[in-house]
Write a structure and sequence with these properties.
Arc Repressor Mutant, subunit A; alpha/beta; globular; D-Maltodextrin-Binding Protein, domain 2; single chain; about 300 residues
Length: about 300
């Protein structure tokens, strides 16, 4: 069959249904009635001469053919997005400098594929110069507000008024101790909040004491501005503190640190891209964020 714009629209509706988990949940996303959604799905099935999903009292479930159509549709949308961004780059002849700020030690996080985004950006906007700085989150926000950088990517414990925040992914943080620490050889069932309170804790200056809130009014015995400094203190065997799991993994694999009570102390740090709303509408910033969201399979 020859595809046209109407078929692509039907495929997008179908993808929204799949990602929402059914016809009814997709209503708020598509902002159309349930009967209209059902009609569009039936039309697509007629066009393809395939049954894409089972729906009824048993709930919504893709058929094997439906799963294949969804997978191919996602690839098609990616190709369309690539074509769109490439044509925009050619049309606008993007030049100048993009100022990007990131927080430290995200390179080991598989959920943060910035190098792939940078590669695509560089390929599709070859005349643009990239200036990249690494700062703690609060400094990144300050530089967004002062116009020194255009995009900041981090987990922001304190959000400032003004910038727009685009959700990206969650980073898992766990509580760690070094092999020379007294708690290293203790079983988790011997460790609780009160036991931990008796030991020296590390806090991050940009986080205030939010990650130590569970320990109530305990004063940290060390403060750091980045993950490497915190890791060094934990590795010393004298301090306890939080690290991102992806960053800590290298030391865990070496037997140099271990998690303590992940059931009690683990939490998620939400990563976002921050930029000024006016900057978001400009070519370079808009282009980079679109590539970033595409790479993370986020909705445009």
């Amino acid at each position: 069959m020859a595809f046209d714009a109407a078929d692509i629209r039907l495929l997008k509706i179908f993808a929204s249904i799949v990602e929402a988990g059914g016809l009814a949940p997709a209503q708020s996303e598509l902002n159309i009635s349930l009967s209209t959604i059902s009609s569009h799905l039936a039309t697509l099935e007629g066009r393809l001469k395939l049954t894409l999903a089972q729906r009824g009292r048993g709930g919504f479930r893709l058929t094997p053919e439906g799963q294949s159509v969804y997978d191919e549709a996602r690839r098609l949308f990616g190709s369309i997005d690539h074509f769109d961004t490439r044509m925009r780059a050619l049309k606008e002849k993007m030049t100048g400098t993009l100022h990007l700020g990131i927080t430290d030690n995200t390179i080991s996080d598989p959920l943060c594929p910035l190098e792939k985004v940078i590669a695509k950006f560089s390929d599709q906007a070859p005349e643009v110069t990239l200036e990249v700085v690494t700062r703690p989150p609060h400094e990144l926000l300050r530089e967004i507000l002062t116009g020194q950088i255009q995009i900041a990517i981090a987990s922001f414990p304190r959000t400032a008024l003004g910038p727009e925040y685009i959700p990206l992914y969650d980073e898992i943080q766990s509580f760690y101790c070094g092999k020379d620490h007294p708690l290293f050889s203790k079983a988790d069932d011997e460790i609780d909040v009160n036991v931990v309170r008796e030991h020296k804790l590390v806090s991050r200056t940009y986080w205030g004491q939010r990650d130590l809130k569970i320990f109530e009014s305990v004063e940290p015995r060390a403060r750091v501005s980045d993950m490497e400094a915190e890791a060094r203190l934990i590795l010393s065997g004298r301090f306890l503190g939080y690290l991102p799991d992806h960053y800590a993994k290298q030391f865990v694999d070496q037997g140099r640190i271990r998690q303590i009570r992940p059931d009690l102390f683990r939490y998620k740090a939400a990563f976002q891209a921050a930029c000024e709303p006016t900057e978001r509408k400009r070519g370079l910033v808009s282009f980079f964020i679109k590539l970033l969201k595409n790479e993370l399979n986020l909705k445009a």
